Amino acid sequence: MQKLAHFYHSIEELSPKEAKYHLSKYEKVVYPKKTIILKEGEVENYLYFIDKGIIRFFLNKIHPAEPSKEITFSLLTENMFVSAYDSFITRSPCSYNVKTVTDSELYRIHFDDLEELYTTTKISNYLGRISAEQLYVRKMQREISLLTHSAEERYMNLLRSNPRLIQEVPLKHIASYIGITPQALSRIRKQLL
Question: Which positions are tagged coiled coil (predicted)?
Fold first, then answer.
């Protein structure tokens, strides 16, 4: 909880007492690698903070004329807040899956506890906004990258910004995340050697 506590204590407007109260609402959960945290069709009840591990968001693409496949659209690592946020805020079933890539330690806060914090502490709305902004910025950066960069540029940007993903995430998920086939990713990797 040290990393999450550091986040809370770094907020100047938050007193140590308020930080302690907020932190008391989180519970630690540990998941082995390849564990589904949230399955398509379920409602997201938690906002998570990744203390250790890598989390993958993916869709199951099912087309009658093609074999089904998973499409990875988000990869998140330590010190990030993570949630199927659209499901979390609308209280509606999620249209995708959330799964651990590696053994993971997370701290989570339940929707009801977060709502209670919003109504009882002044700083909670600020913290909620920060979490939402982080999720939104990551989403926009990914969309812009898919629209404006080549596959090679997307791979190189990922390699520069988070080399750990390249080392620990299976290449088929990296390929899907950057919008290409595993074969195309192999060709890019060979050209870079």
Answer: none
